[in-house]
Amino acid sequence: MSHILKNKVLDDFILWSNLKNGDERSFSLLFEKYYRDLINYGNSLCPFAEKVQDCIQDVFADIWLYRASLLDNVIVKAYLLSSVRKRIARLHERDYIFKKTTTTDVLEFLFDFSIENALVEDEVTAERVLHLNKLLNDLPGRQKEALYLRYHQGLSVDQIAELLEVNYQSANNLLHRGLLSLRKEWKGSIPLLILIYSGLL
Amino acid sequence: MQKRNNYTEIEDFLADESFQLWILSKIDEQGWEEWTLENLQRAKLVEDARLLLLAMRVPDSKLSSSQVHEALQLTWQRIEQREALSQETLKIKRLRTIRYWGTGIAAAILVGLFSAWFFKNDILPHDNIVTYNELVEENNEGLVEQTNNTEKSQTITLSDGSSVLLQPNSKLSYPKIFTGNERKVYLSGEGFFEISKNPKKPFFVYANEIVTRVVGTSFRIKAYPDQQNVEVLVRTGKVRVKSNDMVRSVENEEIILLPNQAVRFARKDFVFNKITNITADPILVNSVTNIEQLSFEFTDIPVAQILETIEQAYLVDIDFPNDKLKDCRLTTSLSDQPLAEKLKIICKSIGNDTNYEMNGNQIVITTSGCN
């Protein structure tokens, strides 16, 4: 498992350094590998699908055109997600030119988590999951975004901190606070025994 | 793998890819189920994590790989546009085409085209030009080429029955037999096309910087390498014209032409001008060819006369038994048909035992007369 993960990262490193040296194929491979993830993330920051596509294509165009000045040893996925976020933020700034905002704080995470219905076998679980889902979606946008980046895009806390432009501790808090408040509410309402048995079906 | 023994928080589980795989895809490669059952406290944590994962679903992206591929091509186009802007001084234009390899992996193939700036051509800027030779080289279907060096037009019949009337100083490359789902030919100079109908296999004419797409119609294309404009004029049916993907165009617009409409593409400015009234355009009026002036609507006309019209239109020789067809008259409409189709219809109308054979521009009709 960690072996696979390492390979994946290694691949990215190789593709990235080939790209830096002008290899178009590596560029295309990275594009195809991450385009869907980026669209998914972009759409949760901006409701206009076409603008999101534009932003992502611009990010890649920039990477190619300024490849000579790219850093080595970049975690490609984190870099891409972060670049897309910045682009979309810039778009926002332009649209809201009268609000004097200069940070990416203006971005609101619009995404709602849904439920893995197909994997919920019994009613008790279904109810719990539904409840949890509602609690999750009621979290502040930034906490939701942190959770999304951590558990769906697989970024580390470090990378999330960098992407959201906060320090490590704050990023950790965002993640932790989200789950903590969740757990408080939900522990009160769920008998432990049911949890154990329903979990081992 | 043993690091999971130290997991104390839900977060530890959520971030574990193999755990996610087990919960969401039911792929238990590392014995999570067994491991969970070992310890009650652990089982509780696992269940919490499981419920959370189930409640935190992110729908899969619905993009197909062709959509991703399309986005990639758009990105390359974007890059080229920006490169072109910033490298104006270098005067280097690259043409990129992206091809899929068997594995489905896209590979960008770079064709570097170094414009011959030293031989500055006064007519056209070099970086937007597509030549016939480039187009033909791109194709790997094993093309045959016909060049018309004579002073009269020549008729070419393609494997699908379509005919092309090739003007002097023009050439056409085409596959001996059309295979696959597209019919592609390449033109330099001028030709009048009559395409046999086949909506399943669209017909493409590549000529200089533009591509003309039809399913079955007749139209004329004028695309000489040393002229400033490319023209497409439609006689029957519907024709789509757009610029070739090989060249950068700011807006990749598609022009749709109906009968007696034309488009003139200015190669220098890369602009399409649609002409809806062709009779008011002196250039188009003057270049009308024989075939376009002739009517193929026949009402009770002697067969000999019909065949004569065909001879004039396609500049072919038709040999037929005059005495046997002396009293044969036909009423038919042949306007929208390629040469081979016209002959077929005529033969069928005359009688069952009537056939034709075509050899270059020599056509022989055999018959025992009309019934």
UniProtKB/TrEMBL annotation, chain A:
Matches recorded under SUPFAM superfamilies = Sigma2 domain of RNA polymerase sigma factors (SSF88946), Sigma3 and sigma4 domains of RNA polymerase sigma factors (SSF88659)
Coiled coil location: none
Q: Which residues are in the RNA polymerase sigma factor 70 region 4 type domain?
A: 134-181
Q: Which Pfam families does the protein's record reference? A: Sigma70_r4_2
Q: Which UniProt keywords apply?
A: Sigma factor, Transcription, Transcription regulation
- Tell me if Translocase is a UniProt keyword of this record: no
Q: Which family does it belong to?
A: Belongs to the sigma-70 factor family. ECF subfamily.
Concerning NCBIfam families, the annotation shows:
sigma70-ECF
Q: Which PANTHER family match?
A: RNA POLYMERASE ECF-TYPE SIGMA FACTO, RNA POLYMERASE SIGMA-70 FACTOR ECF SUBFAMILY
Tell me what this protein is called. Answer: RNA polymerase sigma factor
TrEMBL record, chain B:
The Protein FecR C-terminal domain, residue ranges: 296-365
The UniProt transmembrane annotation reads 100-119
Q: What are the coiled-coil residue ranges?
A: none
Q: What InterPro entries does this protein map onto?
A: FecR, FecR_C, Ferrdict_sens_TM
What high-level taxonomic lineage is stated for the organism? Bacteria, Pseudomonadati, Bacteroidota, Flavobacteriia, Flavobacteriales
Q: This chain belongs to which protein, by name?
A: FecR family protein
**Which of UniProt's keywords are assigned here?**
Membrane, Transmembrane, Transmembrane helix
Q: Which Pfam families match?
A: FecR, FecR_C
Q: Which PANTHER family match?
A: PERIPLASMIC SIGNAL SENSOR AND SIGMA FACTOR ACTIVATOR FECR-RELATED, PROTEIN FECR
Report domain FecR protein positions. 150-240
